[in-house]
Amino acid sequence: MKLSSIPKKILSLVFGLCTVLFISAQELTHEHKQMLKYDNTAYFPTLVNKENINSCYQIEDNAYTLLGLTIKMNSKEVFQKLIDEKADIEKACDGKTPLMFAAKYGNTELLKKLLINGAKKDTKTEKGYTALDYAKKYEKPEAAKLLE
Prior knowledge:
CATH topology: Serine Threonine Protein Phosphatase 5, Tetratricopeptide repeat
Order of helices and strands: HHHEEHHHHHH
Radius of gyration: 18 Å
CATH superfamily: Ankyrin repeat-containing domain
Number of strands: 2
Largest sheet: 2 strands, antiparallel
Distance between the termini: 57 Å
Number of helices: 9
C-alpha cells in the first residue's frame, strides 16, 4: 500500500498519536541517573527545574516522575529536595502516584512523608487500585497498616 493512498486525516491522526506518545515520557539523562543512584543533591539546581520537576520519565516499560524514582531507588535526600521544591505529590505516570510507588516498594519512611505533605490515600488507577491495594499485592504489611 502506498502512503499516498492513506487518507490525510488518518495519517495526521497517527502522526499526532505517535508525537503524543513520544513526548509524554522523557528519557532520564546520565546526570539524573547519577543524582538518583548516589542520592546526591549537589547538581539538583542544574538538573531539576519547573519544566521537568513533574515530567514522566520512561524506565524500561514503566514511566515515573522524579518523585516516584526517588522512592523506587530510596534516594531520600533527592526526595526531600523535590518535596521542598513543591513537586506534585499527586502526579501520576502510567496511572501510579508516588504514594502508590511507596506502598509497592514498602518504603514507609517516604510514604509517611507523602501523607504528611497531603498525598491522597484514595486516589485510584484506571483499574481502580489504590496505594493500599499495592501494599497488599506486594505484601508490604507496614505500608498497608499506614494506609488503612
